[in-house]
Amino acid sequence: MRMEQGRQTDGPIISGFSGGGFKVDDGVYRALLITPQRADGWAPRPIEGLGAEDVAPLFALDPPPEFLLLGTGPTLVRPPPAFVRAIERRGLGIEAMDSRAAARAWAVLRGEGRWIAGALYPL
Questions:
Q1: Could you point out which of 9, 40, 65, 110 has its C-alpha 20 to 30 Å from the C-alpha of 16?
Q2: How many other C-beta atoms lie within 10 A of the C-beta of residue 110?
Q3: Is the separation of the CB atoms in 83 and 51 below 8 Å?
Q4: How confident is the model at residue 2 (pLDDT cuts 50, 70, 90)?
Q5: In this structure, what are the phi and psi dihedrals at residue 50, rounded to the nearest 5 degrees?
Q6: What is the average pLDDT value for the chain, to the nearest integer?
């Protein structure tokens, strides 16, 4: 599937799904950490054990992101409360949704120029 959206901002854009992963520019990532500056592959632990250290590279974004968009895989899974608290202690909001919805939200929000970070579990 390809998501058609006019590119209105700099940085990586999730343009679709390919081979069981997220298509970003010229690469495909099974799981993804993404900021307005870069996209990187990610090897997340199972979501029930997710900790703030698992998304630590996202905290290096300057200025800090408005919020973390968490794609939880093929279905919405609530992230662990300790993870949510750790993210909120850093002054960030967190929005969890299934990973396909998170990828679409990323494209829309970045198209609006929003300064966000994303952590997307495999589809």
A1: 65
A2: 25
A3: yes
A4: very low
A5: -60, 135
A6: 92
* pLDDT band, very low/low/confident/very high, at 19 (cuts 50, 70, 90): confident
d(CA 11, CA 44): 23
Tokens of 98: 């299934």
Average pLDDT over residues 18-28: 91
Q: Which residues pair with 70 in a beta bridge?
A: 96, 119
Tell me the pLDDT tens digit for each residue of 43-97: 999 999 999 999 999 999 999 999 999 999 999 999 999 999 999 999 999 999 9
Q: Where is 108: in which H helix or E strand?
A: helix 99-111
3-state helix, strand, coil in the chain (%, to 5): 30, 25, 45
Give buried/exposed letters for 68-91 (b at 16+ CB in 10 A, else e): bbbbbbeeebebeeebbebbeeee
CB neighbourhood size of 109 (10 A): 19
Q: Which amino acid, one-letter code, is at 32?
A: L
Q: What residue type is 62 in one-letter code?
A: D
